[in-house]
Known about the structure:
Layout: H1 9-13, H2 20-32, H3 35-42, H4 46-60, E1 65-67, E2 72-74, H5 76-100, E3 108-115, H6 116-123, H7 127-133, E4 137-144, E5 157-162, E6 170-176, E7 179-183, H8 185-191, E8 205-208, E9 216-221, E10 224-229, E11 235-236, H9 239-247, E12 252-256, H10 257-266, E13 270-272, E14 282-287, H11 295-307
Parallel strand pairs: 3-4, 3-5, 8-11, 8-12
Antiparallel strand pairs: 1-2, 5-14, 6-14, 7-12, 7-13, 9-10
Helix pairs in contact: 2-4, 2-5, 3-4
Amino acid sequence: xxxxxxxxxxxxxxxxxxxxxxxxxxxxxxxxxxxxxxxxxxxxxxxxxxxxxxxxxxxxxxxxxxxxxxxxxxxxxxxxxxxxxxxxxxxxxxxxxxxxxxxxxxxxxxxxxxxxxxxxxxxxxxxxxxxxxxxxxxxxxxxxxxxxxxxxxxxxxxxxxxxxxxxxxxxxxxxxxxxxxxxxxxxxxxxxxxxxxxxxxxxxxxxxxxxxxxxxxxxxxxxxxxxxxxxxxxxxxxxxxxxxxxxxxxxxxxxxxxxxxxxxxxxxxxxxxxxxxxxxxxxxxxxxxxxxxxxxxxxxxxxxxxxxxxxx
Length: 312
């Protein structure tokens, strides 16, 4: 019978840079500039400290430290290794704090991004309430019309309006995102009320620009989503500008129902093409990584659900 031989530990763990004990001792030597002081604080002999440094140098095949009777000098290779060690140990400490705090009080920094109008209308007014409830949380907030790269910008939570979320991201549905075609009664009386989406091509359509130009409006027909190419004399990257233009009787818009709900109820705007309204999008809270939710992220997702609770 063949017997499987386990390779040495040094081959399994990748060698010198996996020896955390030696790396910690090396880091402390650089910081304290003394083998004997590191030995005293660690409760070992100076010879033990020297062996750890010698082991690192042997495995890396380079000199990390030079010593005279009076001083200790770090080499260029040693300086680079030290800088890497500092980052690694900071990450390890943060990981330990995160794991220990999974069931603790929400605390720490949160980088958040959300669409501009949704953020200003729904999140911003209630944000002080969240921060009063969780005073140990700090928030770095970005409201933007652009779609931010969550990994590159180190975002913790993103609010996204989409049909589906990209693979590899974690999503929590916050609310439906229903849209409405609308105009003023005065505009419709003067220009006529479209009976089908195809007639939109004969109207002045107020177009919103998000991450891309929204000049092809989705319509729902026979259970399928189709696109109608529209045009008009105003394009804006701000939903409030589009709403103001429509309220002034300039034309027709396709906008989020929650933005104009009060206008529809008060009769300032009239909903049209109700049989063709698309309902293929939702509002999501999106996380860039898998795993257990930290208390601060969990608390903020619940906060976002409350912000969107009356969106129907």
